[in-house]
Amino acid sequence: MFEFAFTVVAITLGGGGAPADGVGRPDVPSKVDASARPASPAAPASPSAPASPDTPNRAFIMEVVPAGLVAEDQTPTGRFTTAAEVKPILNTTRGSWIAVRDYDGKDYVYVTHLWSWRCGLAAMAIGVNNAPLRDWPLPPCHETHAAPNAILDEDPQPFLTFERGSVQSVRVQLVYDELSMDTAGFTRGDVLIP
Questions:
Q1: Going by DSSP bridges, is the β-strand pair 121-128/169-176 parallel, antiparallel, or unpaired?
Q2: Which residues, in sequence order, are CB contacts of 92 under 8 Å at separation 6+?
Q3: How far apart are CA 92 and CA 3, in angstroms?
Q4: 109-154 pLDDT per residue, tens
Q5: Nearest to 33 by CA among 73, 62, 64
Q6: Number of Cα atoms under 13 Å in the Cβ half of residue 108
Q7: pTM score, two decimals?
Q8: How far apart are CA 173 and CA 181, in angstroms?
Q9: Whether the Cβ atoms of residue 182 and residue 174 lie closer than 8 Å to each other
């Protein structure tokens, strides 16, 4: 609880754990209109509004945003199932979105933290090293359970495996269920866990 209070104070004072890659400023909202996807996969991606000179270029990759997304109702549920409830948490815990672990002769890239708040997300894409972003379908939100964001045994595993020592950077793009977007980049050293 004490660490949480310090985190809130740090963010309020302009600190925070945002990666130093020039993207992912939580104070600059961005929206996506999923119905306005480019007709061709080769078409360049762009945010829904041009960036002002003091706003970093977020470079959203629209080709990986699933077609047909519709903004969901943002009435708070108290169960953390809307972007209105989840986005402040994910902005505060940005440095924990993913983790890399060298284990059993492989590199594991975990997205457990993001999946734990997935009920407020509409889509997620990930790119490792210089590979293009690819859509990573989220498990369903378990609305009938006491903890709808829980990861159940029958859900897919929240990790990918790679050759040992090969994961040097990871890029994540999120679409919240009210259709705003966020992106962040991480280096191995910043997210490596024992």
A1: antiparallel
A2: 7, 8, 11, 16
A3: 12
A4: 999 999 999 999 999 999 999 999 999 999 999 999 999 999 999 9
A5: 62
A6: 14
A7: 0.70
A8: 7
A9: yes
